[in-house]
Amino acid sequence: MLDTIGWAAGEQDQRPARVTMTRGHLAQLQWLRADVAMSIITSLDARETTTEADDIAALEENIRAARLTVHGLWQIVHAPSCS
Question: I need a surface site. Which of 18, 25, 31, 52 has the fewest CB within 10 A?
């Protein structure tokens, strides 16, 4: 889950751990997912008027990363163990 929101463990112990999530945690993750999804729309709008190659590449990378995050958060929130 932490990899999905960009908190990589790095070289630390990467064994799985069980974490209890409350409905409040799930609601926060849903809100985060919606917020990141809106950032995709904003980036797509900006992409339409951007002409510099470096700026276009940066926007496309941001969109790609945000799509992965949105998908990962969706998988977390809708995982069978979170129902």
Answer: 18
Model confidence, pTM:
0.74
> Residue 58 has which token pair?
């940066």
> Which two tokens mark 51?
């002409």
Say whether 3 sits in a helix, a strand or coil. Answer: coil
Spatial separation of the C-alpha atoms in residues 51 and 41, rounded to whole Å? 18
pLDDT of residue 76: 85
C-alpha distances (whole Å) from 43 to each of 21, 37, 55, 70, 81 are 31, 10, 11, 14, 33
Tens-digit pLDDT profile for residues 39-72:
999 999 999 999 999 999 999 999 999 999 999 8
User: Which residues are CB-neighbours of 36 under 8 A, at least 6 positions away?
Assistant: 66, 69, 70, 73
